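WARN no homologs supplied; continuing
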Amino acid sequence: MTKPSETKVTKIFIDSEVLCLEHFSGIGHYTAGLLHQVDALLDRPEYKDYQVTLGVPWRLAHRIQRFHFKNFIIKRMPIGPRVANQLKMRGLLPPLDLLFGKQVYIFPHFSSWPTLKSPSIPVIYDLSFVLHPEFSADLNSRFLEKQTKLAADRATKVITISQNSKKEIVEHYKVNEDDVVIIHPIIDAKVFYPRTTEEIKMVRAKYGVFGKYILFVGNIEPRKNLASLLRAYAMLDPAQLQDYSLLLVGAKGWKDGEIHDLIQDLQQKGLKVTQPTGYVTDKDMPALVSGASIFTYVSRYEGFGIPPVEAMFCGTPVISSNNSSLPEAVGDAALMVNAEDTQEISDAIKELLKKPELQKRLVEAGFRHTKNKMFDPTQGSRTLLELAKQVSHDEDKR
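OK structure emitted
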């Protein structure tokens, strides 16, 4: 039992598999941003009573070094990601605290390992695989549907990224509202800010991007509503089609056959639908966003919607869908459209291209929106550590 004069150390174990995978996903970016801020907090005297361990895949452990964390203990997980997922589906994973001891366990990728006597906190970003399975890869959707329910059922608390996702988690999994904690994605203002004309010029030349362009950033997949965006672009005035290309930046997704067929069809008709000549690095992305005339993000569903907010940080006017969590993400700083109305999307693009004063108002509104406390980079890391301490203390009282 802890003596009154002693201070209890809050021990936290974070499954960091997502930081070591070959393809760095949005979940990887969310986790990395949050952990960088936690790492910085642990430098402060008031957070000396925390011990944070990162569990990394045995053969991929070297990849964690690229993040240059200073204050974390690194432990190798005994089972690789592929085998772990197979064991999860068969219900054969051992309790993680039998391997690493009693701690607060945080799982940043929907699913979780079982624990025997330790608090468990999964991060459930959204319920797209439940609410819109038609937009997900079939195998991935089945895995997430089963494993996320298991994670929610055995969770002490759940972390999610928006009010909309919280509402959906509470309704679908019957989780107590007080047990779902929101930690918004962290957008680093030291990375996303308006870049100079010279830097924009260099980056555009690097990726073969010339002339004025309307930009989309995200996976090439149906949930992003790219087919509607492509059709909306094709409906612009002839002069606008001549002056502006539509630049699509993103990794290959799933169920993307219709999208690629439509891209080829529009290109054959002479429309300037383009993609970068190579993979756009994280380092170059802010300059490409800064150089866009308009940033378009007309998804059918989002757990949050980070790219349009990053565009606001870079001083680029945004057109966004008005569904799911996007109104929360972009506030009143974007031109909002119905994702199901291609004509409305096209009309919004036409209007914004024709009205420099509207572009200016949206840019100014975007900069104001980025000052919202939800984008305070230290807020999420403080919330995470305080949540871990709370559940650790609650566990000790049982």
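The chain has a mean pLDDT of 93.
OK
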